[in-house]
């Protein structure tokens, strides 16, 4: 920004840039170690089907247990991993780990649980992506129809022909796709209709505006109705209150994910959660 606007205070910006770059480099080096040394972990957040009230699936969310800094948020290290390219090996580790848990969940008596994994822009554009994912699932002995990849609109729309080819190839293996953080580029949902997308996730910023903004209600209604007309299911993310839940239920939103129902949790906690609540976990009406 400062480069484009030389009128602003240079020295200040320089210092900021220096600190940021230093911070970035340290994080990058630490992250490299993290991948080698088992500091990365997946947390799992349940996704609830509003019609059946069952846990349909879980979103796998990356956590970094930093030896000095404690639990580092993905909001902080994913951008670093993305810029440095480390997201590519990290992302494959995530898919591998998710596949292991998927296999384990079937063995534990939770068949049919969908495992959703986030794919970053850079990872999606890795030349070896389809081939690597193919190898991972081939080695994993899983029901591939239970693996779902979450992509953002920008990752899909950057090179639509590439996206179409990759999604179709992976979809032929059974993998399904969700459009993550949906809402801002709303008008282009219809442009995506030729892609094999089975699910749209409404961004939590809209859900959290419910009750405060009539616009958010209109947008959510419109997304649900357009998605349904295209045979696409809808998950609302970031559901924290009963009011939000009720609104979404009235709008025939298919699934919800959010703190109201469950936070992201370590694997063992998820196993207890599913065992204790049973598949017919009750939502208050
Ligand atoms: P996302 O894919 O949109 O994931 C949903 C985020 O919303 C998660 O944040 C989740 O913890 C949070 N969340 C869920 N329910 C609620 C709620 O009720 N209220 C609020 N305030 N937040 C809620 P998290 O785990 O911090 O992850 C942030 C982002 O980092 C993710 O957003 C995703 O874009 C990225 N990310 C996480 N894991 C991975 C990964 O394995 N690979 C890649 N490429 N990106 C990842
Ligand atoms: Mg996601
Ligand atoms: Mg999301
Ligand atoms: Mg998000």
UniProtKB/TrEMBL annotation:
EAL domain span: 24-278
Protein name per UniProt: cyclic-guanylate-specific phosphodiesterase
Source species of the chain: Marinobacter lipolyticus SM19
Lineage: Bacteria, Pseudomonadati, Pseudomonadota, Gammaproteobacteria, Pseudomonadales
Part of the full-length chain shown: 294 to 578 of 578
């Amino acid at each position: 920004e400062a480069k484009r606007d030389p009128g602003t205070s240079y020295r200040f910006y320089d210092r900021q840039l220096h600190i940021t770059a230093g911070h970035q480099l340290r994080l990058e080096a630490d992250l490299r170690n993290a991948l080698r040394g088992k500091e990365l972990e997946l947390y799992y957040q349940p996704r609830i089907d509003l019609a059946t009230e069952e846990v349909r699936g879980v979103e796998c969310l990356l956590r970094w247990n930093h030896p000095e800094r404690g639990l580092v948020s993905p909001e902080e290290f994913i951008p670093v991993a993305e810029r440095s390219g480390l997201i590519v090996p990290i992302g494959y580790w995530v898919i591998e780990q998710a596949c292991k848990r998927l296999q384990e969940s079937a063995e534990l008596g939770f068949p049919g649980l969908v495992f959703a994994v986030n794919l970053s822009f850079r990872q999606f554009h890795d030349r070896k992506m389809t081939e690597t994912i193919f190898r991972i699932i081939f080695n994993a002995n899983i029901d591939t129809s239970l693996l779902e990849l979450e992509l953002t609109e920008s990752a899909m729309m950057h090179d639509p022909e590439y996206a179409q080819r990759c999604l179709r190839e992976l979809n032929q293996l059974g993998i399904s796709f969700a459009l993550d953080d949906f809402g801002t580029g709303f008008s282009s949902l219809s442009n995506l209709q030729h892609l094999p997308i089975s699910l749209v996730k409404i961004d939590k910023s809209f859900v959290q505006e419910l009750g405060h903004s009539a616009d958010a209600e209109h947008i959510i209604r419109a997304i649900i109705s357009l998605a349904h007309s295209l045979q696409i299911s809808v998950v609302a993310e970031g559901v924290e209150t009963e009011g939000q839940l009720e609104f979404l239920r009235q709008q025939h939103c298919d699934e919800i994910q959010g703190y109201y129902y469950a936070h992201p949790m370590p694997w063992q906690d998820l196993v207890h959660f599913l065992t204790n609540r049973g598949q017919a976990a009750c939502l208050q009406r």
